[in-house]
Amino acid sequence: MTDNIKPKEATSIINSLVGGVVPKIGVQHITVGRSEEIAAFISALEDVKNGHSMAKFWIGDFGSGKSFMLHLLNTVALKQKFVVANADFTPDNRLYSNDGKSVILYAAIMDNIAIQTKPEGGALQTLLEKWIEQVITKTAEENYISLAEIRNEKYFGLIQNAIMKTINEITEVGGFDFGYVIVKYYEGYIKNNELLRRNALKWLKGEYKTKTEARQDLGVREIVNDSNYYDMLKNFCKLFVSMGYSGFMINLDEAINLYKISTAAAREKNYEKILSIYNDCFQGKVSNLFINFAGTKKFLENERRGLFSYQALKSRLETNKFETLEIRDFAQPVITLAPMDHNEIFVLLKKLKEIFDFNYKTELNITDEEISAFMEEMFNKPGASEFLTPREVIRDFLNILNIIRQNPEVDKRRLFGEIEISDERPSDLILLDSIEEL
After folding, report:
1. CA distances from 369 to 11, 109, 159, 346 (A)
2. 295-to-94, 113, 253, 271, 415 alpha-carbon distances in Å
3. Cβ neighbours of 359 (radius 10 Å)
4. Residues in Cβ contact with 47 at an 8 Å cutoff, skipping those fewer than 6 apart
5. pLDDT tens digits for 305-354?
6. CA dist 382 → 104, 379, 423 (Å)
7. Apex CA 95: angle with CA 94 and CA 98, to 5°?
8. Which helix or strand (DSSP H or E) is residue 334 part of?
9. Which H or E run contains 290?
10. pLDDT < 70 regions, the chain
């Protein structure tokens, strides 16, 4: 099983899972029991490659594998030549705001842009330079100028016009400023002006706070703001496709933070933005864009604070009434992630033991029977049926492996007996739930 795993992936898997988070790379090596979801996702990717757009909602309880699923989707999409970006909703960012919180979300998306050769993110600069090189090559060919010569400053205006012409052809809203800033990036790129290049990148990533500062640095009148950031994402999507990529996939995790917005009016505005994105995708108003949201069942179905509190979304996102636990519909917008069964968890723990051994160049003496005994202890503990999540099972298992690795004589059964189950939900959500129940 560890034949095709890279040392860097093994380390990422073990360190991340011990820390209670999903590894950024290597998730394909620890995938168990999600083959139907992945098959449906690959089919959806094909549609997006062909010019359609898609919005999907991945729903499951805390620790059920939503974040893991999004990282797995990343791996699949990168192999299909998509540009991919991930961001988490937090109390400080959201889809709709008028105090800069949407731009913070946009900046997080732009910061995490990944391509197959840079799967851990930070690929925006690489993509811009690749696109500029494509424009330079095309302009040289069309004007019968050698590639070496066209980089001369006397042809700067020619390349500048070619960049603006190409941007105007592929963009709609905000295209002029978008193109102008890319020209500035090109100028910094050709003249080796690192400051100009950095300022252009800063603008494209939504990091300018005021128009005055952007005008001083770049001579541009607008900045990315709460009302135009989504248009900028669509512009980037078109740019990536014009470069030869299959599309742009954006994964937005921790959507429970939209549910937790305290004022009903602000929550509704965010749900309205989700509706607008949903309609854009399914009515063909945008091409080659794939947006995934991950959230809990409460975020989706709660009629007071969740998406179902917004009637237009409820009517679009209700589950196919013919679906059962045995007969699933993975083509619908909402995919409910079924919990892993005990057999799947057993297979996963065996895989993790192999990766752990590979990572630490060891071979711990843990039998299948002992893995089963560990699981039995966990699943029979008080509170397990209510609070136990795959995340906690994995973390406890790896923590025990770490103890055994460093203390080979330790009594494994005693370690298993010391396991305690805790409620992993965020404390503010537990408080919110108890208020809701009053």
Report:
1. 26, 44, 67, 10
2. 14, 21, 7, 13, 34
3. 18
4. 54
5. 999 999 999 999 987 677 666 677 677 888 888 777 788 889 999 999 99
6. 41, 8, 11
7. 80
8. strand 334-336
9. strand 289-295
10. 1-3, 63, 173-174, 320, 323-326, 329, 383-388, 419-438
The token pair at 26 is 């290597």
Q: Torsion-angle region of residue 334: left (phi > 0), alpha (psi -120 to 50) or beta?
A: beta
> Under a CB-based contact definition with an 8 Å cutoff, are residues 226 and 101 in contact?
yes
Residues 18 and 12: their CA atoms lie apart, in Å, by 10
| Order of strands across the sheet that contains 334-336 | 82-88, 247-253, 289-295, 54-59, 334-336
42-97: per-residue pLDDT in tens? 899 999 999 999 999 999 877 677 888 888 899 899 999 999 999 999 999 999 99
363 in helix, strand or coil?
Answer: coil
Query: E strands within 41-103?
Result: 54-59, 82-88
CB neighbour class for 269 (10 Å; exposed up to 12, middle 13-18, buried from 19):
middle
Which of 74-112 are b and which e, b meaning 16 or more Cβ less than 10 Å from the residue's Cβ?
bbbbbebebbbbbbbbeeebbbbbeeebbbbbbbbbbbb
pTM of the model: 0.84
Look at residues 366, 255, 250, 359 and name the one whose alpha carbon lies nearest to residue 306: 255
Q: Do the beta carbons of residue 179 and residue 159 sit within 8 Å?
A: no
CA 127 to chain CA mean position, Å: 18
Alpha helices by DSSP H, listed for 123-210, are: 124-142, 147-150, 156-170, 175-191, 194-204
Q: What is the rounded (10 degree) CA torsion for 152, 155, 161, 167?
A: -20
Please, what is the end-to-end C-alpha distance for the chain in angstroms? 51
Amino acid identity of residue 67, one-letter, is S
What residues does 291 pair with on adjacent strands? 55, 250
Instruction: Please answer whether residues 74 and 31 qualify as being in contact, where contact means their C-beta atoms are separated by less than 8 angstroms.
Output: no
Residue 271: C-alpha distances to residues 17, 246, 265, 308, 318 (Å):
32, 28, 10, 10, 15
Separation of CA 390 from chain center: 20
Distance, CA of 298 to CA of 302 (rounded, Å): 5
